[in-house]
Structure of Adenosine deaminase:
Amino acid sequence: MLFLVISGNIDIVVKDRNDLLQKELDLMLGSDIVLSDSEEKANEIFMELKTQELEYGFRNPQYYNYSKHFFEFNTEIVNSELFKLIQKMPKGALLHAHDTGLLKADYVLNLTYCDYLYVCFQENNVNFLFSEDRPTTFCGTQWELVKDKRYSSSGAEKFDNELKKYFTLVTDNPKEVYNNINVVWNKFQNYFINTAGLFSYKPVWEQYFYDTLKAARDDNIMYLEIRSVLPPLYDLKGNVFDSIATAESYKKILDKFKTDFPDFFGAKLIYAPSRLVNVEVVKNYVEIAKEIRRKMPHFLAGFDLVGQEDLGGPIKDFLAELIKSSDEINYFFHAGETNWYGTSSDENLADAIVLGARRIGHAFAIVKHPLLLEEVKKKNIALEVNVISNAVLKLVEDVRNHPLASLLAQNMPVVISSDDPGVWDAEILSHDFYVTFMGVASKHADLRLLKKLALNSLFYSEISNKDKALHEFDIRWTKFIDSIVKDKW
Amino acid sequence: MLFLVISGNIDIVVKDRNDLLQKELDLMLGSDIVLSDSEEKANEIFMELKTQELEYGFRNPQYYNYSKHFFEFNTEIVNSELFKLIQKMPKGALLHAHDTGLLKADYVLNLTYCDYLYVCFQENNVNFLFSEDRPTTFCGTQWELVKDKRYSSSGAEKFDNELKKYFTLVTDNPKEVYNNINVVWNKFQNYFINTAGLFSYKPVWEQYFYDTLKAARDDNIMYLEIRSVLPPLYDLKGNVFDSIATAESYKKILDKFKTDFPDFFGAKLIYAPSRLVNVEVVKNYVEIAKEIRRKMPHFLAGFDLVGQEDLGGPIKDFLAELIKSSDEINYFFHAGETNWYGTSSDENLADAIVLGARRIGHAFAIVKHPLLLEEVKKKNIALEVNVISNAVLKLVEDVRNHPLASLLAQNMPVVISSDDPGVWDAEILSHDFYVTFMGVASKHADLRLLKKLALNSLFYSEISNKDKALHEFDIRWTKFIDSIVKDKW
């Protein structure tokens, strides 16, 4: 009798334990997705690959890649069978991406082979300028044609290798080189400064955007929302254009790309200038955004401010100005891209929410804010999470500690994005999906999470023809599933 | 008119923003504490010191210490005025502490000056044994009197410095030396293996415990719950005693200490043997716990299992056995001391909860488990958080990413403890309080948090005379506050 009672207790406890854990899995992002029979088969393939790798890492943490720096495992990822599947997988939309940080260093290096490109090397920086004649503007040292410099130096290969260092954060010993957050942010911001003269030459600007759209399409992305500071572009004659013209340039290229690739669903612009300015400048920014909307009503998705949040320009300072236009302009603020707690950068999260942001960029700090999490859920504000960016830019070392894990568990409205993948030599979105799936999400998180993340990216986008896009996604997803199931069975 | 409407909107938005953030502060752990006038004055002192240091770090992250490895800022902490205040502050109870990891390397080194101590150096390890005659047990190389070895070697100082390395994890370049979690855990576990023969000599064992109680009292701790594997002790004659005798040894020393220091509120034992065993051994463990309780009913606080959770011995395997005694023995399981998600180590959290644990050790992974967090709150299970331990043992690098921040924000039942502070050269509890307050908690978290954490440690303890202890805490706290206010005003 006693035995039976005890045995009963044990059964109840085991059931309680399993129920608790199962209820959590049922709560997790993606748990509402019901898989078809084919998807179940595909899921088996995904989970077999995932489990194998994770269990090996669990037993041998020295070989578990995702606890290392991204630069130490980036080159290994491309050999992963699971990564190859994720590359082929339709991923919906790319929603948090900065225009001139999307393509890899090799691509940027290739741009320096263009004619009429002058370079000026300074102590730790480089300037570029396209010009018919040798530029006369002051540059610290002297302007030389890249072509001349490349072939007059100690070999084009050595020259190119040196030049490429300006186009990437990748280094052999990242933990030593980037020993605090400001070091890596300095190098990161120098990338944009160093490449400014190269990219803002109108023909290069347009080519870069065209190739970005192509890279997105190649990575199985249907639609893109691109953040841009909209720098003034220039031409060989020395003409300089304004921010509106830069936006128009984007629109023109987008139209051309859609003609060339009618299966691509398009792109929209988030005007995102620097936050390190005063309120008068922000007022002017908003006017520019409105002007773009007037001229290209279907092209502007909205407005944001960029720059290392800890260094200043808290949204709070611009609250009075920004609230005036919150009914007219959609906001997509960066907020809480910090590991400080209780600082102005952390509290940007509250400002983004009260300003009615449609989505919040990063929101890394939001797990420390239970009420803000509630608000975000209630108002259905998507959080644009960029795991690899946060790791490279030193918010978190081991991606298993990324707050996204907790957001996924709480079924928060999350989209996965890539921020500036080219600067760390990642694919335009696949690496971020892969690291999220393998390094951040639960071992039990499966194909349903991946599908949900892809669907979320369309759902929380400002895409004009959302229903059509979702329908097309469904078709492509089914094709993808069928192709991998067919390969296997 | 329009101006007035807009201005009204702005006021509402600013109010919404401030309300949101204030409501979160009102939710935070410690927010229910009402400060007296004197405490308000003391709080000003605390917050002035805290704010000054944090704002400097916010502007100059290269100088912000708590993002570095603990070994890189440990020696600087002791110069902090705030740290000195925290040392003097009554901190209540120490609830998560492993008996032979509490005192610093210098103390351990000093023990090797005892007579009759033999040493045997192996390749990377060392063995100690007290004996009247040269030990005859096999040790790989040869047994020598420490005294002989110390003075026959190339100088006592050099010998001591070499020996001390076995007694600490501290090293000059921790990030390079400990490049994955298993490396640091190996070194950590070797500390316990290397010192076993030294500590389990009965007179040393008893002296170590007496000095631990003294260190706790000196660090303004009133009461201690000590985890022990209860190793067999031995004497010079070669007698070996059982685990029950080890517990009795503790009880005897505790009684002596309380006679010497009647203001100390005592200690209880959590029997916590290794988890890397089979279920039969666990069954035997539980019998030992019951036997201790029979013999010393007021000395045993409860039962736990120890060892690196990722390596095995998940609670799940012992569920059936452990549930049988859950009405008789209090459980204080280590669970979720991992940055894996969805693994057996992560899921130990669910097992600890269904087994009715009074408190959970570490619970590092619990922020990824919204339902387990709810259960813990509903059942009022305290989480014993050890920030510095988690940083040194490589669960998290930057303490600002420690999940404790989120637990504090959610007003979870948290106690701060120190795990094995001696092994990383920290004070017995003050460093953990300091790092929690400065590096983990919100910039806005103030004296109320510190007081709450101290009160929680008594509230969630198994102390016999809780009301009396809380009353005495109140007296000591008031004295502390008065002393610092008097110093300042």
